[in-house]
Amino acid sequence: MVKILLLFAFLTLSVQAIDIDKLLQSMNIEQKCGQMTQVTFDLIQNDEQPNYDENPVNLTKAEYAIKTKNVGSFLNTPFYVAQKTSTWQKTLKTLHDVVLTTHLKIPIIFGLDSIHGANYIQEAVLFPHPVSMAGSFNLEIAKKVGEIASLETRATGIPWNFNPVLDVGRQPLWPRIFETYGEDPYLAGKMGENYIHGSQGNDIKNRTKIATCLKNFIGYSLPFNGRDRSPALIPENLLREVFLPPFE
């Protein structure tokens, strides 16, 4: 797993050729664990952001996370609001500059939820949520949305999108059902497949593409009481017939 993360980091964020196996051999257990750790941006942000032009990174916190704890990945948008492209670029440059002061110089991997377009980037194109797009039964729309969301997310320097949601929407009480492609496993799988083709393509070095992430864990969308992140009681036959096929 560590090797995969290192390959991803250097392929998407660096043009420098590097021997991954040699790098791995030079790393201790704590450094490897750090590279497999992802934390929310909250832990390294300033106490407030008076305006959208201000760099939200708290340098002291960022240096502690990256240099002391060897954290390799961050997610989410500062203060949970959409940021300017220029602010995102300042943010990522600050984190990269910290990385350059470390011994290993492993690029940070940053992930963002661009669920219906690049919704955490100001002035990006917004689209209907996936459940609405699924209502069109139009696979080409899913692919085109993936292409545009990828282009605008990558323009900030972010190479990873936590989307598409391939869990099936069968629990109407679940507050995140709008993130799914609906209740039909076949349609959800096909919409997700086309979104991935549009967003990720076949070349990870393509600067208009980003890596996708199938989520939110299989069966996450069927919480017993409807509340997010609560227990799901799913018989194996239901799991295999309804929830596994889209991920496959």
Automatic annotation (TrEMBL):
> Any idea what this protein is called?
beta-glucosidase
Family matches, as PANTHER family: LYSOSOMAL BETA GLUCOSIDASE, PERIPLASMIC BETA-GLUCOSIDASE-RELATED
Which biological process annotations from GO are given for this protein?
glucan catabolic process
Q: Which family does it belong to?
A: Belongs to the glycosyl hydrolase 3 family.
Q: Where is the Glycoside hydrolase family 3 N-terminal domain?
A: 29-248
Protein keywords: Glycosidase, Hydrolase, Signal
The record's section on InterPro entries has: Cellulose_Degrad_GH3 (IPR051915), GH (IPR017853), Glyco_hydro_3_N (IPR001764), Glyco_hydro_3_N_sf (IPR036962)
